Amino acid sequence: MRKNYLFLFLSLLLTNTLLAQEEAPATVVKNQFKINMLYPGFVYEHGFSDKNTLYSEVNFGLGYRYNSYYDESTVYFFPSINEQFRHYYNFAKRAAKGKRTAHNSANFVALSAYYNFKSIATNEKYGEYCPSFTIAPLWGFQRTYKRKFNLEVHLGAGINVDKFDTEFTPIGNLTLGWVIGK
Known about the structure:
Layout: H1 2-23, E1 31-36, E2 41-47, E3 52-67, E4 72-88, H2 91-96, E5 106-116, E6 132-144, E7 149-162, E8 166-180
Antiparallel strand pairs: 1-2, 1-8, 2-3, 3-4, 4-5, 5-6, 6-7, 7-8
């Protein structure tokens, strides 16, 4: 009888260990594609070491401005490119607690560079929305849940440069989407 319990216990332990290894890798995914649904776009994240990735995103951004002179506001849409060098720092801690680390589900710090192209839809009476470049350090987290639903948040503060101005700007982004592929 004891042999049966011991065999059952060891079988469950081995199965659990194998499943945990499949579910919770301690390194970044080497190639990961995502679709961003909130701001329509595509993301490619390339892992080039155990904890570092190059994150590349092409999407359509949304902006809002208010003009007190005309007492009007406008919403504008613009294509955008975002490049980030990310360092994920808590894979081991999450895995030790039994939390998911699949598909780079961890916290990160990053150095980002954004390029926002000229607006494709805006109120010309209000004013011109010109291209801009922003560089910023970021802190964020990324979580991929069952069925590969992906949530990402990052925050930071950076310097924005356009043809009229150079200014300090807060950075914040919420991404909802899906991981494509494995």
